[in-house]
Amino acid sequence: MISGAGIAGPTLAYWLKAAGFEPTLVERAPVLRSGGYVIDFWGLGYDIAEQMGLLPDIDRSGYHVQEMRVVDDRGRKLAGFGTRVFAELTGGRYVTLQRSDLSRLLFEKIKGRTEILFGDEIVAVREDPKCIRVELEHAGERCFDLLIGADGLHSAVRRLAFGPQTAFEKHLGYVVAAFEVRGYRLRDQDVYLMYGQPGRMVGRFTLRDDRTMFLFVFASTDTHLPASPDQQKAMVRDVYGGGGWECREILAELDQTDELYFDRVSQIRMPSWSRGRVALVGDAAFCVSLLAGQGSALAMISAYVLAGELAATPERYQEAFARYDELLRTHMETKQRAAERFAGAFAPKTRSGLLFRNLVIKTFAIPGVARLAFGRDIADALPLPNYNWPPDDGCGGGRNRHGPDDEEEDRSE
């Protein structure tokens, strides 16, 4: 069983199905989530998407941003740089797209091929010698060989199998909110605009079909955030109410959305990503934080490697879990450290910090500087394992392979 239908969950289900396993995907939301924020997508995640045959759809859904621009109270350019360097560093294999679009494309690859339970969630787990018993809120108890948590920063699987989130979460001192609307009057095609004041930033990005996305990042040490959408909107209004640029117009649009993404900016740091028959992938295991910009690609990498290791040793899941951890831990911890350093660049907490950030951004327009600054972070040093996947049989599955203990009579799944 896989919990979570975001990025890691459908990717894992696809590759497990390709290896002959029979995954079941459960998602708490009644339907796939839409809206939210945009992500930059490149590197090994891009390579995995290519192996899944997704690149044409990703290219159609994505955007090729030409400029990142910082503006002042009146919308005048303070700093910025062209993004051609990213395309050069990635060989043109770089795209910006909505996270929800990537999730939808991944989901389409398993739809009709995998059992999927929407509107349900795991409320208890109990490990037996021959299976793990999973109690679902609506579907009751079922028994599986393995349980994989792909359910994000606030993973229920992690809480049930490993302990409370507070034991693993590192708050980076910021809150993020995002939403999209239709009909916003100002549009700048293929330009990402940022406006900042000490401790707060708001970004605007023009989408297709007369849509616009807004992203807020603001400093906050409060780990107990408001739970209701109305309270969350009120907090955003309180933080940005005195802001210049388009803050007044953007805040007026808050009333037009029922889908506000709102959360802490945090990382998850764990000594182990598995326990018994339970393992974690993506943000549930090693969230690097939304501000890192690579969370979706890293989620796909972890799902791909875990599926590959399980396929390599289908009867010895403990070895597969250990190998998965061994292959990826250093890479993920390096990404976490880089993200922690980068977080403050979104919303410097002092005016002098803002001035310095903008000065640094200006230097990126100098030929070679952006390449020097971003080259190490953009390049993925991790070699992607080759698991010699069997040919796709047209139904998402490969050779006849089953999970551990599948011969036991007491298994219901």
Structural class: alpha/beta
* CATH homologous superfamily grouping: FAD/NAD(P)-binding domain
Rounded to the nearest angstrom, the radius of gyration is: 22 Å
Terminal-residue CA separation: 9 Å
Mean pLDDT: 89
Number of helical stretches of at least 4 residues: 13
- Major sheet strand order: 5-4-13-14-15-12-16
Q: How many structural domains?
A: 1
- Fraction of helical residues: 25-40%
Unreliable sequence segments: 394-413
Shape: globular
CATH class (first level) name: Alpha Beta
Beta-strand portion reads: 15-25%
- Number of E-type strands: 18
Largest sheet at a glance?
A: 7 strands, mixed
Provide the CATH architecture: 3-Layer(bba) Sandwich
- The CATH topology name reads FAD/NAD(P)-binding domain
Describe the structure concisely for a colleague:
The protein is of the alpha/beta class. 35% of the residues lie in helices and 24% in strands.
Walk me through this protein's architecture.
- The chain has 13 helices and 18 strands.
- It has 413 residues and is of the alpha/beta class.
- The chain has a seven-stranded mixed beta sheet, sandwiched between helices. Strands 7-2-1-11-18-17 form a six-stranded mixed beta sheet. A three-stranded antiparallel beta sheet has the order 8-9-10.
- A hairpin with a 2-residue loop joins strand 17 and strand 18 (278-280).
